[in-house]
């Protein structure tokens, strides 16, 4: 038992590695693509230390459920509530209604200890990117709090009665159940699985089982060289995880075993005398571990608000600068808030409890009130609205006509125009949906009506699935293709989608892989080639609309926020150079060209119609009109500006 209670410098170092991994990942630095595994490591550490604390209290006959909860509250809430308050105040002065509402929701959900459920529910195809959500990272803290509430209720009674074997069986059964469930769900519902307490429980329970079993063995008898190798292996497993995993890797399933077992090896065999132990006990790394909680709290709001104000991802030295700022602020919070609240002075502890309770109630009341307030006009002046309105410049029939999480009934597809006219079909995703209404106005001049087959998050490719697993892409594509092939009234089919996202950014993958040597792009290209071939064989003229340039910023939000912060400013030029567009779309152009090789397909390069010869850029703003709804979707205004040329390219000049 003594070993369990002994102060471990190397655990501070392990915390330092974990928090650095998370921060590097959130900064967007490419080599740390799997840095999110730092959270998994934290969960294992928490399970180990909290169980060790309970064992120690019971051994010394000092275990109290109330005291346990009090220590957790004074450890977590002072710094967290402070960061939440500052984040909320900044949000009031920089965010628009939709963003502010979401920030308030994130605050309220944390106070209910449900941030993880909110995070899972807030991910949507048209939602705000997680990198732009200041408090999205509190999801992991909510799971920790849920664990802290439940664990002592399970372990306490068993350990007090000295039923350690029963505790091992119970925790082992729960661990196995959680792991199996997680391994299944990460494939079927990856986003929901990632934020789920049930599917994260096994990571805590690994630490719990380690703490319950390590006291039964005399680890000190293991040779120092052996422990050194085991700890070095654990460190290597964590670093390998940071480098080999990315956002497409399924977590927290089987993949998560690598960093979690790595953490277990360090916790079980760590020894400050070994070389590996000395590396983990390196003073700068230990200090990062000591301030890791404050550092974790502050980094995401800093990154998110900077991204919000700039309207784009981080570039150049910005990640390094923001990491430095995060360190400075976390040191301040640690010494001014976090550490003082750990004081054992009874008078101060009483004051601290009152402080936490009062702030908690104030923030809870404010967030609840904010959720029930009409914020639709908040921070919206006339000047701001002139730009922001394009954020909502959507197809008026989008809710009726664009499919999201269900399988389309093709015979009930939305018809635009006169039902008596010959029909053309537009098949794609939300990018196609944005084009529909302007295209129909032009198509009608050629004597056509238009059928819409748009499925959010799904390109017109069979046997494909979205990387998030949220869309029914394969089912919809098969249904639409079959309908188009058998409908001889339709003579023209237009194919358009977010090609840059799907191909260049890997937002889709094959539904099944039959050739282990083939890469995803080749499999998808063959599937798309099959679709086009089938359409041509059925007598259709296929028109392939190439990618829309993806802007570095969200034009309506960027220009509107520019007006909000500096009302006297002139609108910035928002555009993309030819070189930037070529770099971002190379894979998708190669993919599309390869898919139609040898086929008679009408290629329509929509980007050509957005190119401004004067500025030599692909433009997002034309006079008073914003041509984009966000960074990659055209607004209906933007679609109108290119629709006439698309129709002319398809049917000839009138």
UniProtKB/TrEMBL annotation:
GO terms, biological process: lipopolysaccharide biosynthetic process
GO molecular function: acyltransferase activity, transferring groups other than amino-acyl groups
Pfam families the UniProt entry points to: Acyl_transf_3, SGNH
PANTHER family: ACETYLTRANSFERASE (PTHR23028), ACYL_TRANSF_3 DOMAIN-CONTAINING PROTEIN (PTHR23028:SF53)
Official protein name in the record: Acyltransferase
Keyword Nucleotide-binding: no
Residue ranges of domain SGNH in the record: 401-646
Alphabetically ordered keywords of this record: Membrane, Transmembrane, Transmembrane helix
GO cellular component terms attached to this protein's record: membrane
Domain Acyltransferase: 9-336
Ranges annotated as spanning the membrane: 12-29, 35-55, 76-96, 136-160, 167-187, 199-217, 229-245, 251-270, 282-299, 319-338, 350-368
């Amino acid at each position: 038992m003594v070993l369990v209670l002994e102060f471990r410098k190397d655990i501070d170092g392990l915390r330092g590695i974990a928090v650095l991994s998370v921060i590097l990942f959130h900064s967007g630095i490419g080599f740390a693509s799997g840095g999110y595994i730092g959270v998994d490591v934290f969960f294992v550490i928490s399970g180990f230390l909290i169980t060790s604390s309970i064992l120690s209290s019971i051994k010394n006959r000092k275990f109290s459920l109330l005291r346990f909860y009090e220590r957790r509250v004074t450890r977590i809430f002072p710094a967290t509530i402070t960061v939440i308050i500052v984040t909320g105040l900044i949000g009031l002065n920089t965010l628009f209604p939709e963003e502010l509402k979401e920030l308030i929701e994130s605050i309220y959900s944390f106070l209910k200890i449900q941030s993880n459920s909110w995070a899972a529910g807030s991910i949507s195809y048209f939602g705000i990117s997680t990198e732009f959500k200041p408090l999205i990272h509190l999801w992991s803290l909510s799971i920790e709090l849920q664990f802290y509430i439940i664990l002592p209720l399970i372990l306490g009674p068993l350990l007090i009665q000295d039923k350690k074997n029963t505790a091992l069986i119970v925790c082992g059964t729960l661990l196995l159940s959680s792991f199996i469930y997680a391994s299944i769900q990460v494939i079927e519902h990856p986003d929901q699985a990632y934020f789920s307490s049930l599917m994260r429980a096994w990571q805590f329970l690994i630490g719990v089982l380690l703490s319950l079993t390590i006291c039964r063995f005399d680890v000190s008898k293991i040779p120092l060289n052996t422990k050194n190798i085991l700890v070095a292996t654990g460190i290597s497993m964590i670093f390998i995880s940071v480098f080999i995993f990315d956002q497409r890797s399924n977590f927290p399933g089987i993949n998560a075993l690598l960093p979690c077992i790595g953490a277990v090896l360090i916790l079980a065999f760590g020894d400050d005398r070994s070389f590996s132990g000395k590396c983990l006990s390196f003073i700068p790394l230990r200090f990062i571990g000591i301030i890791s909680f404050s550092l974790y709290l502050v980094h995401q709001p800093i990154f998110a608000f900077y991204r919000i104000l700039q309207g784009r991802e981080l570039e150049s030295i910005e990640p390094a600068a923001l990491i430095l700022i995060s360190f400075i602020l976390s040191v301040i919070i640690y010494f001014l808030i976090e550490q003082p609240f750990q004081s054992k002075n009874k008078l101060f502890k009483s004051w601290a409890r009152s402080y936490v309770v009062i702030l908690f109630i104030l923030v809870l009341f404010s967030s609840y009130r904010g959720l029930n307030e009409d914020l639709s006009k908040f921070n919206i002046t006339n000047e701001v609205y002139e730009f922001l309105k394009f954020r909502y410049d959507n197809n008026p029939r989008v809710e009726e006509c664009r499919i999201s999480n269900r399988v389309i009934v093709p015979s009930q597809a939305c018809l635009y125009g006169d039902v008596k006219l010959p029909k053309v079909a537009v098949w794609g995703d939300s990018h196609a949906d944005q084009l529909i209404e302007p295209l129909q106005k032009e198509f009608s001049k050629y004597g056509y009506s238009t059928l819409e087959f748009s499925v959010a998050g799904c390109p017109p490719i069979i046997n494909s699935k979205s990387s998030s697993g949220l869309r029914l892409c394969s089912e919809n594509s098969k249904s639409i293709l079959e309908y188009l092939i058998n409908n001889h009234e339709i003579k023209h089919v237009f194919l358009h989608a977010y090609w840059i996202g799907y191909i260049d950014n890997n937002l889709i993958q094959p539904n099944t892989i039959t050739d282990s040597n083939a890469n995803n792009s080749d499999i998808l290209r063959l599937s798309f080639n099959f679709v086009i071939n089938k359409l041509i064989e059925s007598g259709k003229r296929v028109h392939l609309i190439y990618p829309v340039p993806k802007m570095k910023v969200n034009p309506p939000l960027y220009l509107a926020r520019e007006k909000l912060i500096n009302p006297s400013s002139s609108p910035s030029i928002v555009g993309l150079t030819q070189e930037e567009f070529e770099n971002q779309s190379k894979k998708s152009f190669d993919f599309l060209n390869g898919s139609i090789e040898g086929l008679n397909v009408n290629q329509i390069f929509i980007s050509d119609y957005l190119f401004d010869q004067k500025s030599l850029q692909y433009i997002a703003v034309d006079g008073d009109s914003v041509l984009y709804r966000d960074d990659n979707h055209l607004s209906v205004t933007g679609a109108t500006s290119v629709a006439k040329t698309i129709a002319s390219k398809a049917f000839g000049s009138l």
